[in-house]
Amino acid sequence: MSNKGDSARSFHQGGGMGGMRRFGSGEKVKPASIYSMFVRIYTHARTQLPLLLAAVVCVIMISLLEFIVPQLTRYTIDEIIPNKLFNKLFLIMCGILGSAIVLGILRYISASLMASIGQRVLYNLRNDLYRHMQSLDVSFFDRNRTGDLMSRVTNDVSILQQMISSSMMQLFTDFFTFTAIAIYMLWIDWKLTLLLLATFPFMILTTRIFAKRMRSSFRTVQESVADVSDHLQNTLTGIRLIKAFTAESYESERFSQRTKRNMDANIQVTRLRAAYEPIIDFLNFLGLAIVLVFGAWLAMKNQMTIGTIVAFIAYLRLLQNPVRHFSRIMNTIQQSAAAYERIMEVLNTEAEIVEKQGAIKLPPVRGHIVFNQIDFAYSSDTSVLKDFHLELEAGKVTALVGSSGSGKTTIAHLIARFYDPQSGEITIDGYSLKDITLASLREQIGIVSQDIVLFNGTIEENIRYGNHHSTDEEVIAAAKAANASGFIDSFPQGYHTQIGERGVKLSGGQKQRLSIARAILKNPRIIILDEATASLDTESEQHIQDALAQLLPGRTCLVIAHRLSTIQQADQIYVLEQGQVVENGTHSELLDHQGRYHQLYELQFPQTDASQ
Q1: 3-state secondary structure of 382
Q2: Average of pLDDT values for 520-538?
Q3: For the chain: N or C, fewer Cβ within 10 A?
Q4: Can you say how many angstroms the Cα of residue 83 is from the centroid of all Cα atoms in its chain?
Q5: 123: number of Cβ within 10 Å
Q6: 485 contacts: CB under 8 Å, gap ≥ 6
């Protein structure tokens, strides 16, 4: 898609999950390797190359400085004490304290640099993740829970932040220190060093065994956090329903079940870590015993000095520190790996609705829409439309009526290309929807539905969502045309009134008029009214009808309605049943026909003379 940035594209390339997939489809995913995680993180981090190089220089200097103190210790024991060099004791103290001060400064600088790099990497990653989610089609959001997606953008990315900001620097420092000290120890005494290094394969094997189990447990932890987040999001937005049905205890119990899963998974992780660290500590003590015993044996044979043994033990501690550090940060690494897998599941998901290569921009349309031999199903086992034909004349009002599930809303979704049919073609003014860009198509479509979406913000901001570049005068004009200015002006803050989440501070009729004002401001050529007045009282419906009278003239309009009173003036009415058009005509023609439309009319107006 054209709206992906370069960093997003680079993050999607190479390694990881191996190809695009339908996230949320139940397909089993191969776990991502830690190596691929570090490679992708580096892809982002290299954009901060000056800071990264400065951090590397600090790491090298830290590793070199850590050689000094053991050497000063060796020199003190082997030279200063036997030769009673009192005049050099002050220099030794200055050397040790100076090394400590410089090490502290370098560690502060390196930690600050890595924190800055980590924050920038996470900033780019979170934005890439959000942009990619915005580029995905409606079916992706049909398959996945809102709370789970929110958890991936917030919680999972934050977990990666811990590793990038601190653990990566520690790993790099430890790797460099381990390599340098191992080479130096081999140079001092290769036999003793090889005996010591013999314990490391056991450490690596232990780490691999526990790492696999830890990552699985952390995956469960993060999935349970997503469950908690999803439950919280659902219950907070539906709090009025919960209280109306006195379901507080029921929802508290459900919430408790989800948090218990999170608790159990965390306990499992803690137990694994509690078993892992003592094993590593035992192997470290084994290494110390080897150095102490074999070194003492060499010293008693005058093949090694006491100072060298002490320095060797100090270097041993430096050599074991990376292993000790790794055992402590393995939690972070495995938790980050699990978070990375969940993030990549989204980033590696490809939109099903994509623009073809060379798609053209749709010019201003008249609005002649044709459905030709359309087959569509949301899932493979449920057909919604079969060999479906429909024509919406340009500049006319076309209404769809029929039983629930007959495919009315699906037709609206197909016009906006929220979904693609499995076969057949939909055209607007002769242009196939698959040949034009999505943006140029949707720019010319305005949708007003029963399910009104308003954002937490001001009235002005919600109306201006129809056209972000509109002036204040245009916003006010749209509100007036939507018959909304009256109630807006009655608020003390007028257009700057905060409406609350999903417009909770407004009535149903007021929210609907704001959505119409938003559509008017967009000035689309095609209007889709999907049960726009279904849940409103008579007075509010009249206000909406007056507003629509301002919006519809000269535009192609598709009206989906159960209330037949709202479509009697439509230019053409299509009656749908089970994804097929069973009859069509004007209101009076369909009543005279005495078919399905007449039956629906009689059900809604049983006391009315159908001939009227």
Answers
A1: strand
A2: 76
A3: C
A4: 68
A5: 13
A6: 476, 479
> Is pTM beyond 0.85 here?
no
pLDDT (average), residues 124-150: 83
DSSP string covering 530-576 = ESTTTT--HHHHHHHHHHHHHH-TTSEEEEE-S-GGGSTT-SEEEEE
Report whether 242 contacts 234 (CB < 8 A): no
Q: Which amino acid is at 225?
A: V
Cα–Cα distance measured from residue 313 to residue 288, given in angstroms and rounded to the nearest whole number: 7
Show Cβ contacts of residue 208 under 8 Å, excluding neighbours closer than 6 positions: none
The candidate with the shortest Cα–Cα distance to 309, out of 182, 168, 185, 392, is 185
What distance in Å separates the CA atoms of residue 258 and residue 185, rounded to the nearest whole number? 52
More confidently predicted of 134 and 540 = 134
Catalogue the long-range contacts made by 462-468 (C-beta closer than 8 Å, 24 or more residues apart): 462/499, 462/503, 462/514, 462/518, 463/495, 463/514, 463/517, 463/518, 463/521, 464/521, 465/518, 466/517, 466/518, 466/519, 466/520, 466/521, 466/522, 467/521, 467/522, 467/523
Q: What is the pLDDT of residues 317-330, one digit of tens each?
A: 777 777 666 666 77
Task: Please enumerate in sequence order all residues whose Cβ is within 8 A of that of 12, keeping only pairs 6 or more positions apart, or say none.
Answer: 347, 348
Q: Which domains does the chain have, with CATH numbers?
A: 6-347 (1.20.1560.10), 367-444+526-532+556-604 (3.40.50.300), 450-523 (3.40.50.300)
Amino acid at 144: N
For residues 603 and 611, give the distance between their C-alpha atoms in angstroms, rounded to a whole number. 15
CB 547 within 8 Å of CB 482: yes
User: How many Å separate Cα 412 from the centre of its chain?
Assistant: 28
Write the DSSP symbol of residue 155.
I
Tell me the Ramachandran region of residue 391: left when phi exceeds 0, alpha when psi lies from -120 to 50, beta otherwise. Answer: beta
Distance from C-alpha of 424 to C-alpha of 441, rounded to nearest angstrom:
18
The residues near 40 (Cβ < 8 Å, ≥ 6 apart) are: 11, 14, 15, 16, 340, 344
Give the DSSP H or E segment for 375.
strand 369-379
What would the mean pLDDT of 351-364 be, rounded to a whole number?
87
Residue pair 126/150 in contact by the 8 Å Cβ criterion = no
CA distances from 245 to 230, 239, 248, 307, 507 (A): 20, 10, 8, 79, 21
Cα–Cα distance, 390 to 370 (Å, whole number): 6
Measured at the CA of 567, the angle between CA 565 and CA 573, to 5 degrees, comes to 130
Containing 230, the helix (H) or strand (E) segment is helix 200-237
Sheet of 369-379, strands arranged across: 382-392, 369-379, 423-428, 431-432
Residue closest to 336 by CA, chosen among 129, 150, 155: 155
Sign of CA pseudo-dihedral 95, 100, 105, 107: positive
pLDDT at 13 over 70: no
